[in-house]
Amino acid sequence: MSGFSFNKENEEKFQALLQRYPNKASLCLPSLWMIQYQEGWISQEAMVYLAQKLDTTPMEIQSIASFYTMFNLKPIGKYHIQLCKTLSCMLNGSENIRDYLIKKLGIKPGETSKDGKFTLSLVECLGSCGTAPVIQLNDDYIQNVTIEKLDEILDGLK
Ligand code: FES
Fold it and tell me: Is 129 in the pocket of ligand 1 (CB under 6 A)?
């Protein structure tokens, strides 16, 4: 018995997708997104649940979920700060931003603050190199990041 199941809204979305895709395997990525939006992360239990729904194995789901860095395989903070560490961002000061965030939040990349508010991650190119350095804060991009801009945004978060 899995400890996870889709909420009503996601179950309806899943059923609607099922009508549209001839192959259940195609539902894997959208389903992983639904799990992540529902729970904030994708647990082993959720993978077992999804494997049953898609007639596949939990191992198969895990290999897909772990391939994509946008899926969180452990619980994360309310605010997920993903700082791009790739070349354009690096050349435009992402390392200073990283060091500043480590100091300000008191956590290292890959960690979550004790109050559960912030998770800091370093990620590969976010596809917005022209506005480097870039941070993805939950679903939003912060572009041309400066320490001042970041302070203002982070200090305004509840
Ligand atoms: S290098 Fe940072 S967004 Fe592309």
Answer: yes
What CATH topology corresponds to 79-155? Glutaredoxin (3.40.30)
Task: Determine the Cα–Cα distance for residues 3 and 6; give it in Å rounded to an integer.
Answer: 10
Q: Where in the chain is the domain with CATH 3.40.30.10?
A: 79-155
CATH of domain 8-67: 1.10.10.1590
What percent of the chain has a predicted confidence (pLDDT) above 70? 99
- Distance, in Å, from the CA atom of 63 to the CA atom of 98, rounded to the nearest integer, reads 29
Stretches in the chain below the pLDDT threshold 50: 1
Burial class (CB in 10 A: 0-12, 13-18, 19+), 19: exposed
Pocket of ligand 1 contains residue 91 by CB under 6 Å: no
Residues of the chain with CATH 1.10.10.1590: 8-67
End-to-end CA distance of the chain: 36
Determine the pLDDT at residue 135.
98
Ligand 1 contact via 107 beta carbon (within 6 Å): no
pLDDT, the chain, mean: 95
Give the pLDDT of residue 69: 82
